Every structure is written in structure tokens, then in C-alpha cells.
Fold this protein.
Amino acid sequence: MTEGHGSSQDASGATPGVWREIYHGGSPEAEADHFTDLADVIVGVQRTNQRKSGSQVARRTFHAKIVVGVDNAELAFRDDLPADLQAGEFTAGARLPAVVRLSNASGAIRPDGSPDLRGAALGLTLPSGREHDLLMTSYPVSHARDAHQFVEIARIGAGPKLLVLPRMLVKFGPSETARVLHNLRQANRPSPGLALESYWSRGAVLWGDAGPVRFRLGPLNPLSRPEGAAPRTPSPSDSPDALQADFAARLSDAPVRFALHVQKFVSERLTPIEDGSVEWKESDSPWLPVAVLTIPSQDILTAQGRTARDHVDALAFNPWNAPSEFRPLGNLNRARRTVYAASARQWQAQ
């Protein structure tokens, strides 16, 4: 187990709490072996998805369909960024080049109107030349408490649909199965447009001396457009690429901007590190603005735009592509280091 001291106070102004990581099997080495086994299962799910789809090409186990991919965005940190939220090269006034991948979360290529989670992946280039990835999805929490549960649910979901419910009941019991299915129903829904979504880290990461945080990317003035500009024409909702067409129409009018916020650790009871299914409530830990992501106005449907999208789609994002002061925390995040790398080796090899 590793421990650290949180840098935020609870609602009563009490002494900052202690955060901790608890390793599966009792040690980092035992947990690493367990994650290797989980990675093998996820690669098997990846192969099952490929076989069921009839595709000749291996794809990501999740977030297979890229909707938007741009390589000319910028993440601009606030000029008045508080000192306690400045960490590493995330400093007041910093302007960082960013690539952005927005996606549907399914491991299969489905029409954009299908109920689904949506994903946002940012690849930042730091002044030192290092890379820093931020990964988020369009629901505040994970349906799974930890990596083992996540992989078991993925394995069950890749099997016959009629057996999903009975297999989950056997594996997790009635109460936990009900919680997981409720979460999945709430999270998987049609999207009004990727420029209108909010995207959460769900798990915690270190943020330098500020300690553990979760982060969120939310739309900034999503309905604004340049004065005199004609209203965009929405694409038909039954188009298989409706979300891409919607985002392209918005970008043809004006830049699309998102605000990046962070939420500080308070206590293990209110803001747990290890359980990814627990929401850190704003009433316990307010969201603090730190930066603005700007995707400049452009035509992403031109040949140049599609080339940029294909380049971004070939990138293997991983939350562990980060400086040590931003180390991912918690079982789910620790597993992603091994599992994402194994999945990427599979789909990048073809």
C-alpha cells in the first residue's frame, strides 16, 4: 500500500486527509502479474469483436470508431492559475499543442446515433518535448469498481447476449449486477453532439503537490457562433456519421472550446482512490477551472482533414504517457498501463 497526504480540506475545514493505493494481491509485483492476465483477456475480447464484425482489421478493444481527429488544437492554462494547481509544465499561461481524438466507446463500428459512451483523448506536447495524454469518457464514473470487474464485464459482454444477465448474476450477485446495469444504462445513450458533451477522467491522477485529482472537460459557450454567421444545418440523426457531420458543421462556423477543470481529493470516504464507481460529488469537492482547450475553426472533411484524422487514429493514447508528477492512481488506472499497451500492440500490428 502507498500513502500520501491530500492537499484539500473537507467541508468542515478539517486537516487534509490521507489518500492511499491498495495493490491487488498485496504488492505491486502481484498486481502486475494479475494485470498481465487481464491484458490477455482484453486481447481475447478484441479478437472476438473482430471476428463478430467480420473485419479484416484489428481495432481498439474500446473506442474503435474515431469521430473527430485533429492535430492543431491548443490547451491554454489560465494566466491566473493558482499556485497550488501549477505542477510540472502545467503552469500559469502555458500554451500546449494538442492532438484531439473524439470517439464512440464501443469496440465495434456502429452508427453514431447508437446509444454509447463517448471518449475524448488529448495528446499534449510539453515544452520539454515530452508527451502527456489525458483520457476521458462522457460519464462521471466507471461501471466497474476495479480492473478485475471491468475485464469480467467485458468478457461477459463479448459473449452471447442472451447469457449476459445470467452470467453477470452468477459472477457478481443480484445487487452488484443491478448497480452495473443501471450505470451502463445511464452512461450509454445517444449524444446531442460531441461539442456539447462533458468528459470525465473518472479515475484519479496525481497533480503534483496538489495530490490526487479527477479532471473534466466541458463545453465552453457551445451555442455561440460569430456574429452574422448563419445557423448550422444539423445532419440527419439517422446518418451513420451524424456526430462527425455535426462537429464539422460547428467547426466550419467557429472554433470549438472546452474548459478543463480539476477536482481535489478530500477523503477516502468522499473521494476514494481505489473504487472507480464512486462519483466525487461537486458538493464535496468543487470543480476548479485550470485551462481551455481550443480546436480552431477548420474543415475536417477535406482531404487534409481526413489525413489528420487518420494520423490521430493511429496514435496509442495511454494515461501513463505522463510525467511522474501526474502518475495515474487507483486499480483501474494502474491496470490501464498494461492493458492499453497490450491492446495497442494487437491493433497496431495490422
